[in-house]
What does this fold into?
Amino acid sequence: MQQWLDSLIRGWGHDPSAWPWTQFVYLAFMGLFAFAVINFAAITAGIFSWAERRVAARMQSRVGPNRVGPGGFLQWVADAVKLLTKEDLIPAESDKVLFRIAPYFMMVGFACVFVALPFSHRLVIADMNLGIFFILAVTALIVVGIIMSGWSSNSKWSLFGAIRSAAQIISYEIPAGMALMIPVLLAGTLSTQGIIRAQGGWPWQWFVFDNPATFAAFFIYFISALAEGNRTPFDLPEAESELVSGYNTEYSGMRFSYFFLVEWGNMWVMSALATTMFLGGWQIPGVSAAQLDAMTGGRAVVFELLSLAIFVGKTLFWVFVVMWLRWTLPRIRVDQMMNMCWKYLVPVSFVSVIFVAGWMMVVRAAPAVGTVTHWIMFLAAGVVPAALFVSRVARNIRDTGDRFDFTSNW
Amino acid sequence: MTEARRAPENPTMDMTSNKEVLRRIEYTGDMLLNMGPQHPSTHGVINFLVQTDGEVMKRAIPEVGYLHRSIEKIGEKCTYNGFMPYTDRVDYIAAMFANQGWAMAVERLLGMEVPKRAEYCRVIACELNRISSHLISVGTMAMDVGAVTPFPYALREREFINDLLEELCGARLTYNYLRIGGVAFDLPEGYADKVITFVDHFEKILVEFNRLITRNEIFVQRLAGLAPISREMAIDYCLVGPNLRASGVPFDVRKDLPYSIYPELQFDVPVGHGERGAVGDSWDRFWVRCEEMRQSCRILRQCIAQIPKGETMGKVPRKIKFTEGIEAYSRIESARGDMQYYVVAGGGENAYRVKVRTGSFTAMGIIDQLSRGLMIADLVALIASLDVVAPEIDR
It folds into this structure.
């Protein structure tokens, strides 16, 4: 973005390195971007809250919110207004300072991620050369907020939720971090845009189908991201049937809405990161990143929007998968959660990293091996499971039907 | 540690009051968690005093009595017919069985035979009710383990049954369908077809339900081997119904102490085999209920095929009166197991003593023993797997 600002200042007829107001222009635009990012995060989270309820309702043969606006779409606005105008109750026995500031820690840890998350070919707030590292670092703030909220609520159930959450998020950060190191190894950069550029537009050029280890790493990352985002089957910190509502039990009004904003917004973050790291990001099939760089004028705008649509489409698909898992799977127990992390995900992720490092040497010696493996992985790990899935769904629908209504004839 | 703060020598002694247990927990330095009566997964107003050290529980003490409505005492103050609507409230999820237990007890006092068609109507209503009760049980069990979707699936099917029962008796929850000497209403026109339509549909849904949750690996991992109840333990703790059968004891009142028309019907008694873990674990209890729904479908099909024509009410005196002190006893297989009514006739139009024995109450007794060493998440699954219903515990 700095180059863009510099060119803007040059367009006004000043030299950005000598002009005294350069820093102020930077600051003003930083404020503007921060405003845009926070609003994007909040609005996405709000829309996801509606989408999740509609998706869940469809899966559970219910209707879901359908009164406010077309298809109930404005339900999230109504909910937001309700939550913001509700009384902000603070329990008398709570640690009031911690109780008040805990939601902001979560909000900050969540919103900062958007600084380094790409949206399209040119649209990224800051294409840092430490992008992934930055994302991993700031998301750790969320667990601080959770522990603070659970501890300060002075409720045993909240404390349980907070402790579970701390154990879970800190444990799963290890496999998630290791899994994210694999695309970093392959791309040779920590920058999110750089990692996308190292992939291609077609599915067999994505890192997920690069070799067996990256395929495993993708799922390790996805499972760990589910755990870090407290989504089913890892929703132990807020397990409704066990802990009532977990760490946010005592919260109400605006502060409560922050927790849920973060939870829903995190779906975007985890999916966008998966898209970036493993699924080719905004890469348009058939158009290389260098060709995109070279475009100018209206053609550049069209392809920019196309790359944005591709990125958002992939991200929303994974958001849907996250919702789908949530409303299908039971919750695992806390010891099973720990077992899964330390006995399976951590060793497999370490092995994957070492495998990929060796694999890169093999591919460097014989590039044909890499191309063939891409295709084999794409067919064996992409096409075949998809076909199996479709046939299974078709069988389920054939056996019991998709919709049935025999009561209207009664 | 001073003398006064030392932990009691035998902290697991059983015959102590809850107050004493609380005092002891205070000295051990463990955390005391109050689970309920407003906790979402205690299935009604039950309280558990949970002594925990982190996630692992030392013990969970059930505290019953929050939903006591003195139904037995009401039974002594009402006429025999007048008590029938109250029996619905003994177990409002499976009200038909409570109706039947009371009707059978009074019929035994009268020494009367119920017309054949009325017996068939009773069995049809009861088996539909058994399915709907088990649907709630398996649905909430899945929900307590964290899978939300099976619950609406189960409730959707239950709505169809509620529609059927509403058509039969006008009520969807507290049916008050049975009468002493028969049933209130005959089957309406076209009812047989509707029951068969439902059964055809429901058998397919059971397969889908099993695919969705019963064989789900996470679900199995959560429940298999969890809190197994051995055969001896189940008998010692007087467990009944699906909880007992899951432990491998094929005791079903419908088979072993036959009543009504059950001897004429073909059905199996599913027992737990420890297919995925130990015999009598929580998964077995879940699976036995799923299988029982299938058997109920079989029974419904036979009833619809065999139901004779005729009266639905026997000859019952307008005022039911007995000589003082005669007594009767009825046992039926409720959705929650062996439900027993004991009635001692008073001199006038009402009973001298009514006693209801229900399965949930005895199931509560075993929780303290089973909960030791489990995790808090397991306690939730354990309560759900025992299928305790708060009104049936306290009556």
User: Anything to note?
Assistant: Confidence is low (pLDDT under 50) at residues 1-13 of chain B. Residues 116-144 of chain B form the longest helix (29 residues).
